[in-house]
Every structure is written in C-alpha cells, then in structure tokens.
Amino acid sequence: MTQAYWKKHILEFTSPRGTSRGIINSKPGYYLILKDGDDIFVGECGLLPGLSIDDREGYEEVLNHVVSALMNENKFPDLSLWPSIQCGLETLDLHREGGSFQHLFNTPFSSGESGIEINGLVWMDKAERMFEELNSKLETGYTCVKLKIGAIDFNDEINLLKHIRKHYRACDVEIRVDANGAFTANDAYPKLLQLAELDIHSIEQPIKAGQWDEMAGLCAKTPLPIALDEELIGLNTSADRRKMMETIKPQAIILKPSLIGGFKRSDEWIDLAEKCGAFWWATSALESNVGLNAIAQYAASKTPDIPQGLGTGMLYTNNISSPLEIRKNKLFYNPDKTWELPF
C-alpha cells in the first residue's frame, strides 16, 4: 500500500546563531514522505524563514497538493514559485530512483570512497568569540573558513581579519566572507579594498539583491571575487536568470538548491556561470541531514575542485541521524552507518 504525507520538524540550534538579519534559535524543516510497502522515500523542503521566496501563506496547502499528487499519481501543481518544495520533491524522486539515501547520485562520495572538502563556518558574534571559533575550526583541520560579517562594526571585523592574518598566511588558510547584503552601494567598494588587502578569497553578496546596476559596477572593478548568493533567489524564468548573469557578470555564484528550486535548476545556473567565466560552489541552507546529504551528493557529482559549504550537520541538537560525518576538513558518507528517520 502506498502512503504519502508531509511532516514538519522544528530544528533546534545547539546555540543561538547570529546573522546579518538577527539572531536565530531554530528553523522549521518540512519533509515529503512516500511509503511503498516497507520502503520509505524522503525529500526535505528546506524552507528558510526570511530568505526563501516561498516563506509565505499557503506553503502547507501546496504541500497538501503535492502529497495528493504523489498518492493519486496526478499532475503536480506548478512549483516554480515554491522552490524549496520543488527541491524536496526532486530529492524524493532521486531517493526513489536510487533506492536509498546513499544512491541519490552514484559517486565515489556516495560509496564512501572519498570525501568533499568543505569550509568551516564562523558565525557572527563578538570579535573575540569569532576568533575563538575560528581557532577551533583550524585545530580541527580546516584550511578554508567562511566568516559571516556585517553584524558588528566593520572596523572591528577588519581588525579581527588582520589578527587572523598575523597568525595564518593566505597560503595556509583561505578566508571567505559573507556580508549577506549588509553593505550599501555607496560604501561597498572602499570596504572591498580593505578586505582585498587581507588576501580574502571572495565575498558573498556585498550589497542587497536586486540592485543589478550597482552590483554590476562593483563586479567590474572589484579587487576580490564577488560571489552572488541572494541574487539568485526569486528569478523564476530562464530569461530572468540569463539577464541577471549577463548584466552583473559576477566572478562566482553560490548554489543553494533549496532556495533556487532544486538540482536541475542548479545545473542551469552552472551552465550560465561557465558561459560568463564565473566559478561556483554549493552551500547548504541550514537543512537537516536529509537535505544536506542530497546537496552533498549533487555537489560530488560535479567533481568540485574548491571547498564547498556543506559543514552544517552539527548545528542542531535534534538533527536526523545519518551516515554523514566530518573528518578534518572533509565531509564523508559512511556506508557502515544507518539513517534513523523519525517519520
């Protein structure tokens, strides 16, 4: 007997996390679930409040329509404006086609033969606390770290980065920063100049999304690579996506499948990036291990040669137990471990 349903699971952070949008303590997780006899297939709909374009009224109603279509093999509703649900459904289909969580994409990563290099993430906090967290990441074995900036005084952030560079050279530790749109169009360029002096690898989304001309101007003269993140969210047609890339001409883009509509959409973004001479990396958007596994397996299928943003599996006190594990600076899938699903 086939059974389909969805379930909401509130993920609780191990400690409050600071972002440029404020402090967060938890996030909702939604899961599409299909049971066929003894088999269970799951896809996570990684809704991120305050950032996902589908964080709005009607979300659970759309989930009901998707579940009905799964049960009755009806036509699915148009999910172009519900990217996290589209990603969840695509993940469920991959799970069903592959037969297990381990085989969404068959790669050396999914078989446990190799790991994916990832960056360590340092959240926004007081400068002293950020440096402590950074040291912890480096002692673990990370050689690439990403710092969230934009929540405290910029001079304090620059002093923190200077302090880091006194201890760790660029050839030893790659530093990425993520401003989450915290700079203004007027003050962004002088700040980029200061960051470039500290051998920063790249900066994500220096100004708020939607300012295409201003962002294009920054990308044309920036002293360090600019990676677009929020800029990719909410562009629902191929024409809009192409126009944005051709207008801004960024140095890099960040792929967050839950926010942009899944893996086929991510393929389209990669193609656009390559045509524009931009590089890319994939990042989780605070999904549980279900979504993280799907994104990691997708990223591995592209044989990336730079660190990916996939080190979020330890953020929650009540994450879904999985075979994913971090060893030094790499994420691995351990085939000897099993999933423990609360569904």
Write a short abstract of this structure.
By secondary structure, this protein is of the alpha/beta class. The chain has ten helices and 13 strands. It folds into two domains: 99 residues, Enolase-like, domain 1; 218 residues, TIM Barrel (Alpha-Beta Barrel), CATH 3.20.20.120.
Give an account of the 3D structure.
- It is a single chain.
- The protein is an alpha/beta fold.
- It folds into two domains: 2-100, Enolase-like, domain 1, CATH 3.30.390.10; 116-333, Enolase-like C-terminal domain (TIM Barrel, Alpha-Beta Barrel), CATH 3.20.20.120.
- The protein is built from ten helices and 13 strands.
- It has helices spanning 59-72, 83-98, 127-140, 154-167, 188-196, 212-221, 238-248, 257-260, 263-275, 289-301; strands at residues 2-19, 22-36, 39-45, 116-117, 120-122, 144-148, 174-178, 202-204, 226-228, 252-255, 279-282, 324-327, 330-333.
- Strands 5-6-7-8-9-10-11 form a seven-stranded parallel beta sheet. A three-stranded antiparallel beta sheet has the order 1-2-3.
- A hairpin with a 2-residue loop joins strand 1 and strand 2 (22-36).
- It is globular and about 60 Å long.
- The two termini are 17 Å apart.
- The mean pLDDT is 94.
Descriptive keywords:
about 350 residues; alpha/beta; Enolase-like, domain 1; TIM Barrel; 2 domains; seven-stranded parallel sheet; three-stranded antiparallel sheet; 10 helices; 13 strands; globular
